[in-house]
Protein backbone atom coordinates (compact mmCIF):
# COMPACT_ATOMS: atom_id res chain seq x y z
CA UNK A 1 0.00 0.00 0.00
CA UNK A 2 1.56 3.23 -1.16
CA UNK A 3 1.72 6.05 1.39
CA UNK A 4 -1.40 8.13 0.77
CA UNK A 5 0.48 11.43 0.62
CA UNK A 6 2.70 10.01 -2.13
CA UNK A 7 -0.47 9.09 -4.06
CA UNK A 8 -2.14 12.42 -3.41
CA UNK A 9 0.78 14.79 -3.99
CA UNK A 10 0.27 16.67 -7.25
CA UNK A 11 1.74 19.95 -8.40
CA UNK A 12 -0.60 22.90 -7.76
CA UNK A 13 -0.35 25.87 -10.11
CA UNK A 14 -3.45 27.81 -9.01
CA UNK A 15 -4.08 28.80 -5.41
CA UNK A 16 -7.04 30.13 -3.45
CA UNK A 17 -6.44 33.31 -1.47
CA UNK A 18 -7.34 31.48 1.77
CA UNK A 19 -4.64 31.98 4.39
CA UNK A 20 -2.41 29.13 5.60
CA UNK A 21 -2.03 28.90 9.40
CA UNK A 22 1.51 29.48 10.61
CA UNK A 23 1.47 26.15 12.50
CA UNK A 24 1.00 24.37 9.16
CA UNK A 25 4.05 26.14 7.78
CA UNK A 26 6.02 25.05 10.86
CA UNK A 27 4.92 21.43 10.32
CA UNK A 28 5.98 21.57 6.69
CA UNK A 29 9.40 22.97 7.62
CA UNK A 30 9.73 20.40 10.39
CA UNK A 31 9.16 17.65 7.82
CA UNK A 32 11.88 19.30 5.72
CA UNK A 33 14.25 19.31 8.68
CA UNK A 34 13.57 15.61 9.35
CA UNK A 35 14.79 14.71 5.85
CA UNK A 36 18.17 13.01 5.56
CA UNK A 37 21.15 15.18 4.57
CA UNK A 38 24.58 14.10 3.34
CA UNK A 39 26.65 12.99 6.35
CA UNK A 40 23.82 14.41 8.48
CA UNK A 41 25.00 17.98 7.78
CA UNK A 42 21.62 19.54 8.65
CA UNK A 43 22.68 22.68 6.81
CA UNK A 44 19.28 23.68 5.46
CA UNK A 45 17.50 26.88 6.52
CA UNK A 46 14.20 28.33 5.39
CA UNK A 47 12.87 31.75 4.42
CA UNK A 48 9.09 32.11 4.72
CA UNK A 49 7.56 34.89 2.62
CA UNK A 50 3.99 36.14 3.07
CA UNK A 51 4.54 39.80 2.19
CA UNK A 52 2.77 40.62 -1.09
CA UNK A 53 5.42 43.09 -2.20
CA UNK A 54 8.16 40.50 -1.75
CA UNK A 55 6.09 37.91 -3.62
CA UNK A 56 5.65 40.44 -6.46
CA UNK A 57 9.41 40.98 -6.51
CA UNK A 58 10.02 37.23 -6.66
CA UNK A 59 7.50 36.99 -9.51
CA UNK A 60 9.52 39.63 -11.39
CA UNK A 61 12.50 37.27 -11.19
CA UNK A 62 10.97 33.84 -11.81
CA UNK A 63 7.58 34.50 -13.43
CA UNK A 64 4.49 32.32 -12.88
CA UNK A 65 1.27 33.92 -11.63
CA UNK A 66 1.04 31.44 -8.76
CA UNK A 67 4.09 33.05 -7.16
CA UNK A 68 1.99 36.18 -6.53
CA UNK A 69 -1.16 34.20 -5.78
CA UNK A 70 0.00 31.62 -3.21
CA UNK A 71 -0.37 32.91 0.36
CA UNK A 72 3.06 31.61 1.39
CA UNK A 73 6.36 30.96 -0.37
CA UNK A 74 9.04 28.81 1.25
CA UNK A 75 12.60 29.24 0.07
CA UNK A 76 14.97 26.55 1.35
CA UNK A 77 18.70 27.22 1.34
CA UNK A 78 21.68 24.98 2.04
CA UNK A 79 24.99 26.15 3.52
CA UNK A 80 27.72 25.05 1.10
CA UNK A 81 30.36 25.48 3.81
CA UNK A 82 28.70 22.51 5.55
CA UNK A 83 27.78 20.20 2.64
CA UNK A 84 29.08 19.12 -0.75
CA UNK A 85 25.60 17.98 -1.75
CA UNK A 86 23.31 21.02 -1.44
CA UNK A 87 21.21 20.06 -4.48
CA UNK A 88 20.56 16.55 -3.22
CA UNK A 89 19.83 17.76 0.32
CA UNK A 90 17.45 20.50 -0.80
CA UNK A 91 15.66 18.15 -3.21
CA UNK A 92 15.09 15.49 -0.57
CA UNK A 93 13.87 18.08 1.94
CA UNK A 94 11.56 19.57 -0.70
CA UNK A 95 9.86 16.21 -1.21
CA UNK A 96 9.24 15.85 2.53
CA UNK A 97 7.74 19.33 2.50
CA UNK A 98 5.52 18.51 -0.48
CA UNK A 99 4.25 15.38 1.24
CA UNK A 100 3.65 17.09 4.57
CA UNK A 101 1.77 19.89 2.81
CA UNK A 102 -0.35 17.21 1.11
CA UNK A 103 -1.12 15.69 4.51
CA UNK A 104 -2.40 19.12 5.58
CA UNK A 105 -4.63 19.48 2.51
CA UNK A 106 -2.28 22.03 0.95
CA UNK A 107 -0.92 22.31 -2.56
CA UNK A 108 2.67 23.01 -3.55
CA UNK A 109 4.84 22.99 -6.64
CA UNK A 110 8.59 23.00 -7.36
CA UNK A 111 9.40 26.31 -9.06
CA UNK A 112 12.96 25.77 -10.18
CA UNK A 113 15.41 28.66 -10.24
CA UNK A 114 17.19 28.87 -13.58
CA UNK A 115 20.77 29.40 -12.51
CA UNK A 116 21.84 30.17 -16.09
CA UNK A 117 19.48 33.17 -16.09
CA UNK A 118 20.89 34.42 -12.79
CA UNK A 119 17.64 33.66 -10.93
CA UNK A 120 19.37 32.10 -7.92
CA UNK A 121 21.64 35.13 -7.54
CA UNK A 122 18.73 37.58 -7.82
CA UNK A 123 16.60 35.71 -5.28
CA UNK A 124 19.50 35.61 -2.81
CA UNK A 125 20.07 39.33 -3.23
CA UNK A 126 16.36 40.13 -2.84
CA UNK A 127 16.02 38.10 0.38
CA UNK A 128 19.44 38.95 1.83
CA UNK A 129 20.63 35.33 1.72
CA UNK A 130 24.43 35.16 2.16
CA UNK A 131 26.65 34.11 -0.74
CA UNK A 132 27.55 30.70 0.69
CA UNK A 133 23.99 29.36 0.48
CA UNK A 134 22.57 27.44 -2.47
CA UNK A 135 18.93 27.92 -3.49
CA UNK A 136 17.38 25.67 -6.13
CA UNK A 137 13.66 26.31 -5.90
CA UNK A 138 10.76 28.32 -4.55
CA UNK A 139 7.90 26.36 -2.99
CA UNK A 140 4.51 28.11 -3.01
CA UNK A 141 2.13 26.77 -0.35
CA UNK A 142 -1.61 27.25 -0.36
CA UNK A 143 -4.99 25.70 -0.98
CA UNK A 144 -5.11 24.48 -4.56
CA UNK A 145 -8.00 25.63 -6.72
CA UNK A 146 -8.06 22.20 -8.36
CA UNK A 147 -8.85 18.95 -6.63
CA UNK A 148 -5.71 16.88 -7.23
CA UNK A 149 -6.11 13.53 -8.98
CA UNK A 150 -4.22 10.84 -7.03
CA UNK A 151 -1.56 8.72 -8.70
CA UNK A 152 -2.71 5.28 -9.79
CA UNK A 153 -1.06 2.35 -11.53
CA UNK A 154 -1.48 4.16 -14.84
CA UNK A 155 1.49 6.27 -13.66
CA UNK A 156 3.53 3.13 -13.03
CA UNK A 157 5.67 1.55 -15.73
CA UNK A 158 7.18 -1.82 -14.86
CA UNK A 159 9.26 -1.77 -18.04
CA UNK A 160 11.47 0.73 -16.22
CA UNK A 161 12.55 -1.98 -13.77
CA UNK A 162 15.65 -3.94 -14.77
CA UNK A 163 16.39 -7.14 -12.86
CA UNK A 164 20.05 -7.65 -11.87
CA UNK A 165 21.43 -5.52 -14.73
CA UNK A 166 20.38 -3.26 -17.58
CA UNK B 1 0.93 15.98 12.77
CA UNK B 2 4.00 14.94 10.84
CA UNK B 3 3.60 11.99 8.45
CA UNK B 4 4.63 8.93 10.45
CA UNK B 5 7.02 7.63 7.80
CA UNK B 6 8.86 10.98 7.86
CA UNK B 7 9.22 10.59 11.63
CA UNK B 8 10.26 6.94 11.41
CA UNK B 9 12.67 7.08 8.46
CA UNK B 10 16.23 6.66 9.70
CA UNK B 11 19.32 5.51 7.83
CA UNK B 12 19.99 1.79 8.29
CA UNK B 13 23.61 0.63 8.07
CA UNK B 14 23.22 -2.97 9.28
CA UNK B 15 20.77 -5.40 7.73
CA UNK B 16 19.35 -8.78 8.67
CA UNK B 17 19.71 -11.55 6.06
CA UNK B 18 15.89 -11.91 5.93
CA UNK B 19 14.64 -11.73 2.36
CA UNK B 20 12.50 -8.83 1.09
CA UNK B 21 9.42 -9.88 -0.92
CA UNK B 22 9.51 -8.74 -4.54
CA UNK B 23 6.10 -7.05 -4.15
CA UNK B 24 7.65 -4.75 -1.54
CA UNK B 25 10.38 -3.79 -3.98
CA UNK B 26 7.72 -3.04 -6.59
CA UNK B 27 5.86 -0.82 -4.10
CA UNK B 28 9.05 1.06 -3.29
CA UNK B 29 9.81 1.62 -6.97
CA UNK B 30 6.20 2.65 -7.57
CA UNK B 31 6.58 5.32 -4.88
CA UNK B 32 9.75 6.43 -6.68
CA UNK B 33 7.86 6.67 -9.97
CA UNK B 34 5.10 8.74 -8.33
CA UNK B 35 7.63 11.40 -7.33
CA UNK B 36 7.57 14.67 -9.25
CA UNK B 37 10.20 15.16 -11.97
CA UNK B 38 11.27 18.35 -13.72
CA UNK B 39 8.66 19.20 -16.38
CA UNK B 40 7.19 15.75 -15.66
CA UNK B 41 10.02 14.07 -17.62
CA UNK B 42 9.51 10.68 -15.92
CA UNK B 43 13.00 9.68 -17.09
CA UNK B 44 13.95 7.52 -14.10
CA UNK B 45 14.56 3.78 -14.39
CA UNK B 46 15.62 1.27 -11.77
CA UNK B 47 18.06 -1.62 -11.54
CA UNK B 48 17.25 -4.14 -8.80
CA UNK B 49 20.18 -6.26 -7.63
CA UNK B 50 19.82 -9.37 -5.46
CA UNK B 51 22.71 -11.43 -6.86
CA UNK B 52 25.43 -11.77 -4.23
CA UNK B 53 28.27 -11.68 -6.74
CA UNK B 54 26.99 -8.39 -8.16
CA UNK B 55 26.60 -6.97 -4.64
CA UNK B 56 30.19 -7.99 -3.92
CA UNK B 57 31.31 -6.23 -7.10
CA UNK B 58 29.42 -3.09 -6.10
CA UNK B 59 31.04 -3.27 -2.66
CA UNK B 60 34.46 -3.35 -4.37
CA UNK B 61 33.56 0.00 -5.96
CA UNK B 62 31.79 1.86 -3.16
CA UNK B 63 32.77 0.07 0.06
CA UNK B 64 30.44 -0.30 3.09
CA UNK B 65 29.73 -3.78 4.46
CA UNK B 66 25.99 -3.17 4.23
CA UNK B 67 26.24 -3.22 0.43
CA UNK B 68 27.08 -6.94 0.63
CA UNK B 69 24.74 -7.55 3.53
CA UNK B 70 21.45 -5.97 2.37
CA UNK B 71 19.26 -8.47 0.50
CA UNK B 72 18.40 -5.96 -2.23
CA UNK B 73 20.09 -2.95 -3.80
CA UNK B 74 18.13 -0.46 -5.88
CA UNK B 75 20.05 1.69 -8.34
CA UNK B 76 17.98 4.54 -9.81
CA UNK B 77 19.12 6.17 -13.03
CA UNK B 78 17.89 9.23 -14.90
CA UNK B 79 18.06 9.70 -18.67
CA UNK B 80 19.92 12.97 -19.30
CA UNK B 81 18.53 13.13 -22.83
CA UNK B 82 15.12 13.71 -21.21
CA UNK B 83 15.94 15.96 -18.24
CA UNK B 84 18.30 18.78 -17.28
CA UNK B 85 17.74 18.01 -13.59
CA UNK B 86 18.75 14.37 -13.06
CA UNK B 87 20.20 15.01 -9.59
CA UNK B 88 17.07 16.75 -8.35
CA UNK B 89 14.78 14.11 -9.89
CA UNK B 90 16.75 11.17 -8.49
CA UNK B 91 16.98 12.79 -5.05
CA UNK B 92 13.25 13.42 -4.83
CA UNK B 93 12.46 9.87 -6.03
CA UNK B 94 14.95 8.47 -3.49
CA UNK B 95 13.10 10.16 -0.64
CA UNK B 96 9.78 8.66 -1.76
CA UNK B 97 11.47 5.27 -1.87
CA UNK B 98 12.94 5.73 1.61
CA UNK B 99 9.53 6.66 3.00
CA UNK B 100 7.71 3.82 1.26
CA UNK B 101 10.33 1.35 2.55
CA UNK B 102 9.74 2.76 6.04
CA UNK B 103 6.00 2.15 5.62
CA UNK B 104 6.83 -1.49 4.85
CA UNK B 105 9.02 -1.86 7.93
CA UNK B 106 12.21 -1.81 5.85
CA UNK B 107 15.45 0.07 6.30
CA UNK B 108 17.38 1.99 3.65
CA UNK B 109 20.27 4.37 3.38
CA UNK B 110 21.59 6.77 0.73
CA UNK B 111 24.99 5.45 -0.36
CA UNK B 112 26.31 8.29 -2.48
CA UNK B 113 28.50 7.59 -5.50
CA UNK B 114 31.65 9.70 -5.42
CA UNK B 115 31.83 10.95 -8.97
CA UNK B 116 35.34 12.33 -8.43
CA UNK B 117 36.56 8.79 -7.67
CA UNK B 118 34.92 7.45 -10.82
CA UNK B 119 32.36 5.47 -8.82
CA UNK B 120 29.42 6.45 -11.03
CA UNK B 121 31.30 5.37 -14.16
CA UNK B 122 32.32 2.04 -12.62
CA UNK B 123 28.78 1.24 -11.43
CA UNK B 124 27.36 2.03 -14.86
CA UNK B 125 29.94 -0.22 -16.53
CA UNK B 126 29.31 -3.05 -14.04
CA UNK B 127 25.53 -2.96 -14.53
CA UNK B 128 25.54 -2.20 -18.26
CA UNK B 129 23.82 1.17 -17.80
CA UNK B 130 24.15 3.29 -20.98
CA UNK B 131 26.33 6.41 -20.99
CA UNK B 132 23.42 8.89 -21.10
CA UNK B 133 22.09 7.93 -17.65
CA UNK B 134 23.07 9.64 -14.40
CA UNK B 135 23.42 7.59 -11.21
CA UNK B 136 23.94 9.35 -7.88
CA UNK B 137 23.36 6.69 -5.24
CA UNK B 138 22.83 3.06 -4.34
CA UNK B 139 19.88 2.28 -2.04
CA UNK B 140 20.20 -0.92 0.01
CA UNK B 141 16.85 -2.28 1.14
CA UNK B 142 16.36 -4.77 3.96
CA UNK B 143 15.28 -5.31 7.53
CA UNK B 144 17.42 -3.14 9.78
CA UNK B 145 19.21 -4.82 12.67
CA UNK B 146 18.57 -1.73 14.78
CA UNK B 147 15.17 -0.44 15.83
CA UNK B 148 15.10 3.08 14.38
CA UNK B 149 14.52 5.96 16.77
CA UNK B 150 11.82 8.28 15.37
CA UNK B 151 12.50 11.97 14.84
CA UNK B 152 11.18 14.24 17.54
CA UNK B 153 11.23 17.97 18.17
CA UNK B 154 14.82 17.66 19.39
CA UNK B 155 15.69 17.36 15.66
CA UNK B 156 13.80 20.59 14.91
CA UNK B 157 15.50 23.97 15.08
CA UNK B 158 13.19 26.96 14.73
CA UNK B 159 16.19 29.30 14.54
CA UNK B 160 16.60 28.04 10.98
CA UNK B 161 13.32 29.72 10.00
CA UNK B 162 13.63 33.29 8.72
CA UNK B 163 10.46 35.34 8.45
CA UNK B 164 10.12 37.42 5.25
CA UNK B 165 13.89 37.72 4.71
CA UNK B 166 17.25 36.54 6.02
What is the beta-strand fraction of chain A?
15-25%
Poorly predicted runs of chain A are none
**N-to-C SSE string of chain A, H for helix and E for strand:** HHEHHEHEEHEEE
Instruction: Give the tally of β-strands of chain A.
Output: 7
Average the pLDDT over all residues of chain A and give the rounded result.
97
**Number of helices in the DSSP assignment of chain A:** 6
Oligomer: homodimer
Q: What helical percentage do the residues of chain A reach? A: 25-40%
Describe the largest sheet of chain A. Answer: 6 strands, antiparallel
Task: Describe the secondary-structure layout.
The structure is a homodimer of 166-residue chains.
Chain A: H1 4-8, H2 22-33, E1 44-49, H3 52-62, H4 65-69, E2 72-79, H5 86-103, E3 107-108, E4 111-112, H6 119-127, E5 133-134, E6 137-142, E7 161-163
Antiparallel strand pairs in A: 1-2, 2-5, 2-6, 3-6, 4-6
Helix pairs in contact in A: 2-5, 3-6
Keywords:
6-stranded antiparallel sheet; alpha+beta; 7 strands; homodimer; 166 residues
Amino acid sequence: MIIKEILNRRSAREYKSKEVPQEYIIEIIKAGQFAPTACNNRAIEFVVVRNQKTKNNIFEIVGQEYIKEAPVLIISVSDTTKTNCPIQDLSVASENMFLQATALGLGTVWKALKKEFGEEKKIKKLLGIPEQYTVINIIPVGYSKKEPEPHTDKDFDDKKIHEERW
